[in-house]
Amino acid sequence: xxxxxNGAISFGLVxxxxxxxxxxxxxxxxxxxxxxxxxxRIRYRKVCELEDREVTQDExxxxxEDADGSMIPITDDDLTQLPIPTARTIxxxxxxxxxxxxxxxxxxxxxxxASGAPAAxxxxxxxxxxxxxxxxAIAKFALRGRxxxxxxxxxxxxxxxxxxxxxxxxxxxxxxxxDAGVTVRDxxxxxxxxxxxxxxxxxxxxxxDEYREALEEVIAAxxxxxxxxxxxxxxxxxxxxxLMAALEGSVRAARESRGGERAGAAEGAEVRSLPRRAASAxxxxxxxxxxxxxxxxxxxxxxxxxxxxxxTASATGKPAAKSGRxxxxxxxxxxxxxxxxxxxxxxxxxxxxTAKKTAPRKRSA
Length: 365
What we know:
By secondary structure, the chain is of the alpha+beta class. The chain has helices at about 75-80, 120-135, 185-200, 210-225, 245-255, 265-270, 300-315, 325-330, 335-340, 350-360; strands at about 5-10, 15-20, 45-50, 55, 60-65, 70-75, 90-95, 105-115, 135-145, 145-155, 160-165. InterPro entries: DNA_bd_Ku70/Ku80, Prok_Ku, SPOC-like_C_dom_sf.
């Protein structure tokens, strides 16, 4: 990497000679202006207004335009003799936690390289001190004709510096937020959280400039005399009328795009139907005259239960609790025969008599 500035880091009484290099590079595709009729390049020439002629770079200097339009020349010597200590020095003024720096202030990024063998020791000292303190250094430096603010931090085994805007250069967000009175429900926040969880994290190294890649394909196709392939027309976005529906649809789409890995237990659960209950006496209408229907007595378990209750009543001489239904079912020999099936042959005359005695007792509905 080519250095763009040489100077030193001032760390108290310690001076660290360094070289400043750009830490980033632009991969954007640049264009030239041409004359559409014949393809000729359109160029800009630097012309002196007073002499009406083109001038060379050696003849061009700097000047400040005053309020009345007059020009005040400023030479390079004027800039180098400015009474500031940061003309060729990155002066560290404080050490603060990194979270104190507002990302809105961050600008260009640079690498600071140790310049020569004598700079290796103090350079390493500053780097390790920043690591151990978990803080960043705030510094002032002069670059391209003006004093700037910078933040020094450790990146790998190197020290990087981010150019910072001065605090008064960051605008306040007045009039940016929507008017007051907007209420967000807990259900909407829950869906927003679910959407964030579904989207999850991503490795930033996997992201790339798809627009630049598509543009390079167009340039390559036209250079080869081919027709660039047409890209599919993007679908027109629909109007969001229901925020909850939009959030639910977003969560659903995100889960589908992720292959259903985090679809959730609710979506992946097995649905089983409950077994149907056998027909009960509640489906049979009551007979007129207050008598219970005996059509459901054909169930063998019910008949056995009735027998047990009747035998208890015979042994004690008292009707068992809730034996009214069983007694009434056995009052009619024909009905009892249907109700007990094979068990009807085991009944005796004494049990029938007992059933008749208990028949008048009616069970409350």
